[in-house]
Amino acid sequence: MGEFDLIKRFFERERSTQVGVALGIGDDCAVLQPAAGQQWLVSTDMLVEGRHFLSTVAPELLGHKALAVNLSDLAACGATPRAFTLALALPRADEAFLAGFARGLFALADAHGIALVGGDTTAGPLNICVTVMGECPQGQALLRSGARPGDDIYISGCLGDARLALEQFRGTLSLPGEDFAQVRLAMERPEPRVALGQALRGIASSAIDVSDGLAGDLGHVLVRSGVGAELDFERLPRSRWLAAQPAAVQQLCLLSGGDDYELVFTAPAAQREAVLAAAQASGTAVSRVGHISAEAGLRVLDGSGEKMALQLQSFDHFKA
Question: Which of 64, 90, 209, 224 lies 20 to 30 angstroms, CA to CA, from 4?
């Protein structure tokens, strides 16, 4: 099967009627048209076998995750997904892999109304690069730079299960079979919080998605906003599987885990009811876990309000 047969069979669909897409796959460029009064938001993420995913992951789950991690960036900015491109390097044209990958990819794309409008394929080590495009009303995008002293800090969903699964794969801990299946799903099939991000426009003062660990990702917000933060460790949301682990494992997974693809966001205290309404409207649980302070740096407090002695790190592709 040649390159163009591969594209036509697994990735070419009927001409898109998606809002913002005048012309999708079929020409040298896609033709996109933002609606009046909207700004376009663009983000790219690459997934490399052995670095971002294991060779044992099911192709359908890999297709889902390849798009999900990019949709999570749109969610963090409050954007509505519109279009995406896919660049795919494959060791070989494996039809069973491609069928499963495309099935997972398009199931998530259809769920969020986003159209595949182009990309590239080549032979090489398995590498997946997706670029997403979304739109947001002029000036309403959620950014990392808007946090202010006194703002509350919130987290969607639960943190740490993806790292818990990774530690099982690494052999540093052992979970019962059903427990492992649940945390493995968090690692291999994250759900981007797109609806929550959109609902937070005009409410949240800043936002970011947790991809490299809470400490590091919240740290980006603090640097861009020129502020500090205090987190209540006991209020960080965690699953019952993680809550059953020793304290050191919980600290690692909650603060430095990564691959969660939850949103951490800030909002003025006066917006607490609005935040809860946005969470309810989007069907997403949120937890208030701390506040923004004027003093620079991130401080994590224990149940007694004392600063915990922690070495906070986030994932770094060139140090891991």
Answer: 64
211 vs 209: CA distance, rounded Å: 6
Say whether 5 counts as a known binding-site residue: no
Ligand-binding site membership of 101 (annotated):
no
Look at the block and give the residue holding tokens 């740096």. Answer: 297
The answer to whether the annotation marks 73 as part of a ligand binding site is: yes
Q: What φ, ψ does residue 58 adopt, rounded to 5°?
A: -65, 135
Q: Is 144 annotated as a binding residue?
A: yes
Residue 94 in marked binding region: no
Amino acid at position 283, single letter: G
* Token code pair at residue 264: 């951490």
Q: Tens of pLDDT along the chain (320 residues)? A: 666 777 777 777 766 567 778 777 777 788 888 888 999 999 999 988 867 676 778 999 999 999 999 999 999 999 999 999 999 999 988 899 999 999 999 999 999 999 999 889 989 998 999 999 999 999 999 999 999 999 999 999 999 999 999 999 998 998 988 899 999 999 999 999 999 999 999 999 999 999 999 999 999 999 999 999 999 999 999 999 999 999 999 999 999 988 999 999 999 999 999 999 999 999 999 999 999 999 999 999 988 888 888 766 655 544 55
Q: Is 33 left (phi over 0), alpha (psi -120 to 50) or beta?
A: beta
Give the range of the structural domain holding residue 18, as residue numbers without chain letter.
3-137
Same domain, 60 and 28: yes
- Confirm whether residue 259 is marked as ligand binding: yes
Q: Is 28 annotated as a binding residue?
A: yes
Q: Has 45 been labeled as part of a binding site?
A: yes
Alpha-carbon gap, residue 77 to 145, rounded angstroms: 11
- Residue 223 and residue 118 share a domain: no
Q: Is 260 flagged in the annotation as binding? A: no
Shared-domain flag, residues 169 and 86 = no
Output the pTM of the full model.
0.91
